[in-house]
Write a structure and sequence with these properties.
single chain; alpha+beta
Amino acid sequence: MKKLFTVYDRYIFTQVLTTTIVAILLFTIVWIAPEMLLNTIKKILSHEYTVRTGVMVLIYELPKILGKAFPVGLLLGSLFTFDKLSKDSELTIFRAVGMSFWRILQPLLVLSLIVTYLCFLTYDKWIPYSCQKLQEIKGGGTLTQYIYTKKDENNHPKQAVIVSRFFNHEMTNIIVLNFSQQVFNDLHGLTNILVAETGYKGVDLEGKPSWVLNDITSYEVTEEGIFHKINKKPQEFILNGEDAEDAYTIMLNSTKRDRDINNKDLKHYVNLLKKENLDEDYRLMYNKYLQRFFHPFVCVLLAIMGCLLGFSKPREQRLIGFTIAIGCIFVYYITLPFFDLLAEKGVLPPLVTAAFPPVAFLCAIIAFYKSKDL
């Protein structure tokens, strides 16, 4: 029976793994050293952080760096390894004994699939967890002027809730506009306006999810748009049931970046944005959600690219391969915000904008493979 892993497989796997780990460490040090480390040291010296807190901040910053370091490290690791094998004529020996290019590539593909899984896990679990811990250390986030609009089956506004400030799950200075069914020159009239000092998501008197407002001033409005009665209320329940849950989830996630949310919650958030007809936010976040699956796959493509760049002639300059590799990484990451914008504005569907960079890499690899005549 043929061995699953031969001596060659173990040799190549170990060589690429070692150089990849070194490349990831160098990338992480270069990324973390200039600004992040300096800011942390400043906060320690100013007694804003203890030494332990400063170290924990740096540790929790690592997953965000690793998300980019995994593909870059694999590209440089495979490039350096195969370039060295090529310069030492080892690849020539492998080819002479009948090994095809794809047979030579097999141990690298196994390693790249492992790194792909780690990259996927980083974006799904490690980065959201580390961002949560960093928020706990640095304090809760804030949001100004969040607006949620509840609409009827005809897409006409029924109620608008304006939250002026959101901090640590507490809402302050909430304004609620209750719309009438009467329309004047395409503008909906108001029946009353509620202004609350504070609020939070709780339950109503029947135990259903609800937004609870405290210290309320209610302004009754006539059909002519004139305030004719002002009342004080200690408490009011709005956005009952599913509306309360949906509005709170959207508000909570709108304070976060996409990387702060795991895949399950991000998918739920995307579905809510679609349900509420928040088209631009929906397209952008759906694009980000799809990137969670396409981006890790880039690890495999970059590993193959590094291997192809490493297949060089004995006297060929090593600088050429590394220059092309750095150029590929630069083009990939510099174009991601551009495709995010195309998705957000509806120029291209999110599926196209998320899939285009990996597909472009795949096409470049195919063209490069044919030009190498391997």
